[in-house]
């Protein structure tokens, strides 16, 4: 079962994905987020944990939420820069595993709440 990549990120990264960033802070925030997305996806892959979506998809969503939105050429430049050296996850693996367990447990309990109608 694949897990959402976003649940493996820090709260501040998830906030960036939801709301984007304002002009003036975008480059630093974008670089930080790109590094964390790349590092987290690498950690998950190394530990054979399937995830979705790809880091680029989440980064593009972030870019769309920025004010004003980041142009695709600027996003490409930031991602290229973030890829120059090895990126590391901003959370330790144990913390990520706990988030995955919570997500799976919550998902399982939601499925149990859905009942089929009686005939």
What does this structure look like?
The protein has one domain (3-113). The chain has helices at 11-19, 26-46, 55-65, 72-82, 93-113; strands at 3-4, 51-52. With 119 residues, it is mainly α. A two-stranded parallel ribbon has the order 1-2. It is globular and about 45 Å long. It has five helices and two strands. Helix 1 packs across helix 3 (55-65), helix 2 runs antiparallel to helix 3 and helix 2 crosses helix 4.
List the helices and strands and how they pair.
Blueprint: E1 3-4, H1 11-19, H2 26-46, E2 51-52, H3 55-65, H4 72-82, H5 93-113
Parallel strand pairs: 1-2
Helix pairs in contact: 1-3, 2-3, 2-4
Overall, the morphology is globular
The helix content, as a percent range, equals 55-70%
As residue ranges, the low-confidence spans are none
Number-wise, the strands total 2
Rg, Cα atoms, Å = 16 Å
**How would a textbook summarize the main sheet?**
2 strands, parallel
Task: Based on the model shown, name its key terms.
single chain; 119 residues; mainly alpha; two-stranded parallel ribbon; 5 helices; 61% helix; 3% strand; globular
